[in-house]
Amino acid sequence: MLYELILSLRLLLTQPKILGASSALLASHSINLENRWDDQFVNDVFKDNILLTLYYLDNKINDKTQIDWGKINQPLKVEFTLKPTETFAFHENTLKEYSDNLVKTTNSHFIGSEGFRNSGHLIGDGVCHLASLMYWVAKDAGLETYNPSDHNFAKINEIPKEYGSGILSPNPLGNLYIINNLEKPVTFSFDFDGKNLTVAVVTQ
Q1: What domain range includes position 110?
Q2: How far apart are the first and last CA of the chain?
Q3: Which string of DSSP letters, residue by residue, matches 53-75?
Q4: Hey, which residues does 25 pair with through a beta bridge?
Q5: Does any domain span residue 182?
Q6: What average pLDDT does this structure show over 70-92?
Q7: For the purposes of burial, counting CB atoms within 10 Å of the CB of 165, is it exposed (0-12), middle (13-18) or buried (19 or more)?
Q8: How many structural domains are present in the chain?
Q9: Are 161 and 196 in contact (CB under 8 A)?
Q10: Cα separation, 68 vs 87, whole angstroms
Q11: Calpha distance 104→81 (Å, rounded)
């Protein structure tokens, strides 16, 4: 009797959460943007670059002159949708086999002229954390993915090592590719509450 109760509870918890008449949550993971790196300065650079990427992704800004760091660090919600067979790439420089159905990128190149900050090691440091979070969620949602460059050269707090994604523009191999191989559209939802960033994939 107890075993059956435990089994029923497990099945309930592993079922997609119904969000509406025709929507279901496929996967969701969160990271704390105050825990990107042990050094506070480096952590803040990572955090700013992650949030700036989301602003470019959502077309809230188009160039460096539009950046308001005080606003960028406020709570934020962003989303985009992939129809069946459509592809997302983290930046526009893609491998040929992923270019035909490419419909969405972050619209950025993670460079100083776009306003990305320098940690002392690399301009744009931190965007790999966002890519890795997306890769983790996409894999758990059952989407087709290709992550050519791992991130084994450095830890990414709160993300399992196997989901580390190394991003380097303009190298097509320093990219992340996500393809909607499902029969329904899927929406990637990004929710920053001022401290934690949650990425979720929802079916339409």
Answers
A1: 34-194
A2: 37
A3: HHHHHTTS-SSGGG--HHHHTS-
A4: 202
A5: yes
A6: 97
A7: buried
A8: 1
A9: no
A10: 30
A11: 9
Tokens, residue 156? 């990414």
Confirm whether 203 is domain-assigned.
Answer: no
Does 164 fall in a domain? Answer: yes
Q: For residue 193, give Cα distances in angstroms to 4, 26, 78, 117.
A: 38, 21, 12, 22
Task: Collect all residues with Cβ–Cβ distance below 8 Å to 189 and sequence separation of at least 6.
Answer: 77, 78, 79, 198, 199, 200, 201, 202
pLDDT digits (tens, 9 = 90+) for 97-117: 999 999 999 999 999 999 999
Q: Which of 140, 117, 137, 134 is nearest to 176 (CA)?
A: 134
Q: Give which of 20, 1, 178 is closest to 87, Cα–Cα.
A: 178
Over residues 14-37, the pLDDT tens digits come to 444 445 556 899 999 999 999 999
Task: Assess contact for 180 and 186: CB atoms under 8 A.
Answer: yes
Give domain status of residue 51, yes or no.
yes
- C-alpha 171/C-alpha 134 separation (Å) is 19
